[in-house]
Design a protein that fits this description.
about 725 residues; mainly alpha; 3-stranded antiparallel β-sheet; 28 helices; elongated; Cullin-like_AB; ubiquitin protein ligase binding
Length: about 725
């Protein structure tokens, strides 16, 4: 077939060319080097090149084996391009000459090589070389994602280096030689091999940055991936990429109202552990956790969760074994506190530690306010320094410790251990109140033992024991000024208990002269045992719950369950109706009472038939009902506690009212800030309310006509 040639350039075009170039330069023979058909085949070439190289490099094929595909007993298993399909690293054999020959022979039958020659003739070598570089660049990223995503192992980098050296570079070099006859057919120099291995490790590091949140969440199973990140974060650019990308992921997946405080703190702890390995200097950790710490400070229950976790019981006192952590308690902090107590006394690696021979300067990407001390980068140190002042933490510690010390426990070794560890961080003076609380409880046991021993010798006490056998009264004597305020939910205790309290007071006054007892009936625990027709119930409950169930016993009732209404119980016990309802719902959840009518409850002497054994469906329904009732009881109890707290607050505000009137009368007009400062000085225990709450209270006094507001917000007594 005769060849077709492009028509010669028209004379007009030759004139234009000669007007631009000198006479020694001739115009091109053909104005169009490539035909339109050749340009259209570029995407097709790229697609075919990608498919063929993917096959040769073993991407997407989990059965791809380098060299011989059989297991050699003495040498080990062959290399698989898919990491999860490989045998353990110590079982993979090094490629032999036979493996190399087998692999090269297998690759020689690929249709890629004749395709390269045809593409070189059609579109030119340089165009195909550019396509080859772009395709290989994408395939390296594709291979890393396909083979290593979700796979974490210490020897993973060896697998990647093998793939780069024996597959990626060799095939890329062979393809380049087919396109460019001037290329050296010999193997690439070692420097080039190292450069491409470093490039592949960078792709692996970028993958680990994308997976970092999953790595942090499942830290126990994924910690080998941190080594991949260490090889990646070797310069400020990659370090910035990691912190910026991970910060965005934290904002989207963790720092939102849908995540509980415990979940956020658990991930925060894993972040600290992971980043201390990734960057021992703590610069990356400092940059990542700033947003997390700021978000935790804004949550109301953060301090409570931290303190509760520190005081969690991690050992069963009966068996001495570690107990499983509760889902709503961050007991991991208690274990961490025990592990880190030896680190607390270690020397700080600060700027002026002249004896530290391992000192290195801070990284160049450290923030201006970067903290040099490693004490703030361990788990406990990071959490207790979360707030600007330690008073917030100490106040919550006192409140939580008070709840634990008021329980009936055999010992308080856990609380003593936590206080000793925290004193190393806060100092003795900050935890003096906690020390007094602990000493009160321990001394109360001795005092209670002496008082009861003396009372048992008296006739009145003996008569009460004979009349009301089984009732025992034990008291914990608290120092009022050192314990947190306890809202008093007043009610009438049973007569038997009240008689014992009066005798116990006399015994205490005889032992501790010039001191008197003030009973806090709503605080403490009551161990009760209820005998019903078909069962016996034994448990520790709150005093007001015990008082309500005690009101249901009636020796005069014959063959009829005792029934009480909410209003009757509230009047009889001098207890708020909300608290009475909470107690009744609690006993309904324990299947001791049932609501026979609206706001009326009766004793459930016998369980309904089928609830204790025959019908599994009935049992499940009953269990669900109990869970729902228990939740309702807890909600009502919280509402009752809130009412008591609000009443206590109003009572205190009445006292503050007198303070304010006296100050303004004696010292003249004052602005809001000075009034708050003066109240903080004169009020015993400090003024517990913020300036905004004080402003609202003063506005109420102005509305009542007790105060007036002058210029610049100055308050004065109304004339």
């Amino acid at each position: 077939m005769p060849k077709t040639q492009s028509p010669p350039a028209p004379p007009a075009m030759d004139g234009v060319f000669m007007s631009v170039f000198s006479s020694g330069i001739k115009p091109p023979k053909h104005h169009q080097r490539f035909r339109v058909k050749s340009a259209v085949t570029i995407p097709e070439i790229q697609h075919a090149l990608t498919d063929q190289l993917r096959i040769l490099l073993g991407i997407g094929n989990e059965d791809f084996v380098y060299g011989q595909d059989r297991l050699i007993t003495n040498a080990g298993a062959p290399y698989h391009s898919h990491f999860a399909s490989c045998a353990p690293a110590h079982q993979i054999r090094k490629p032999t000459a036979t493996d190399h020959a087998t692999q090269i022979n297998r690759e020689s039958s690929s249709p890629l090589w004749p395709m390269l020659s045809n593409w070189r003739s059609g579109v030119g070598a340089q165009a195909v070389i550019k396509l080859l570089a772009a395709v290989l660049n994408d395939l390296m990223t594709e291979f890393v994602t396909w083979s290593y995503a979700g796979n974490y192992h210490e020897t993973l980098h060896l697998h990647l280096e093998f793939w780069v050296e024996h597959l990626f570079l060799r095939i890329a070099h062979k393809a380049l030689c087919c396109l460019d006859s001037t290329s050296d057919a010999q193997r690439l120099p070692e420097t080039e091999v190292k450069r491409y291995k470093s490039m592949a490790m960078g792709r692996l590091g970028a993958l680990r940055v994308d997976e970092l949140f999953e790595i942090i969440v499942d830290w126990d199973a994924t910690f080998p991936a941190i080594e991949d990140l260490r090889n990646f974060t070797t310069n400020p650019a990659t370090r910035g990429y990691l912190t910026h990308g991970f910060g965005k992921v934290l904002l989207a997946r963790l720092l939102h109202p849908g995540a509980s405080t415990i979940e956020i703190l658990q991930i925060y702890i894993s972040i600290i552990r992971a980043f201390r390995i990734l960057d021992p200097k703590g610069v990356l950790l400092d940059r990542v956790v700033r947003r997390v710490r700021r978000y935790l400070r804004e949550r109301d229950d953060t301090v409570n969760v931290i303190v509760t976790g520190l005081l969690a019981d991690t050992v069963d006192h009966d068996t001495g074994e570690h107990v499983a952590s509760e889902p709503d308690v961050l007991s991991e902090l208690a274990l961490e506190l025990q592990r880190r107590n030896t680190h607390d006394n270690s020397a700080d690696d600060g700027e002026f530690d002249w004896n530290n021979m391992d000192w290195v300067p801070d990284p160049v990407d450290a923030a201006p306010d970067y903290m040099k001390s490693n004490k703030n980068t361990d788990v406990i140190g990071s959490l207790i320094t979360l707030f600007d002042t330690k008073d917030v933490f100490v106040k919550e510690l006192q409140s939580t410790l008070a709840d634990r010390l008021l329980k009936n426990k055999l010992d308080f070794n856990q609380e003593i251990s936590v206080l000793e560890h925290l004193k190393l961080r806060f100092g003795d003076s900050a935890l003096q109140g906690c020390e007094v609380m602990l000493r009160d409880v321990l001394d109360s046991r001795k005092v209670d033992h002496v008082i009861r021993r003396d009372l048992e010798k008296e006739e009145t006490w003996t008569q009460l024991e004979k009349r009301d056998g089984g009732i025992e009264l034990h008291a914990k004597i608290l120092s009022r000024l050192f314990w947190p305020s306890m809202p008093e939910q007043s009610f009438n205790v049973p007569t038997e208990v009240q008689e014992r309290q009066q005798i116990y007071e006399k015994g205490f006054e005889a032992l501790k002269q010039s001191r008197t007892l003030t009973w806090l009936n709503a605080v403490g625990q009551v161990e009760i045992e209820l005998e019903l027709d078909d069962r016996t119930f034994h448990e520790e409950v709150l005093p007001w719950q015990a008082a309500v169930i005690h009101a249901f016993q009636d020796s005069d009732a014959v063959n009829q369950p005792v029934s009480r209404s909410i209003s009757t119980l509230a009047a009889e016990l001098a207890m708020s109706p909300t608290l009475v309802r909470s107690a009744c719902i609690f006993w309904v959840s324990k299947r001791i009472l049932h609501e026979s009518a609206a706001d009326t409850f009766a004793v459930l002497e016998r369980l309904p038939s089928g609830a204790d054994g025959d019908a599994a469906m009935t049992i499940d329904t009953s269990a669900n009902a109990q869970a729902n009732t228990a939740a309702a009881a807890e909600a009502v109890a919280q509402a009752a506690a809130k009412e008591a707290e609000e009443a206590d607050r109003k009572q205190k505000m009445a006292i503050y009212r007198q303070f304010i009137l006296s100050m303004l009368t004696n010292q003249g007009n004052m602005p809001l800030a000075r009034i708050a400062m003066m109240l903080g000085i004169v009020v015993p225990g400090g003024f517990p309310f913020s300036n905004e709450e004080l402003k609202e209270f003063l506005a109420g006094m102005v509305k009542e006509g007790a105060l007036e507001v002058g210029n610049a917000g100055v308050y004065k007594v109304a004339s």
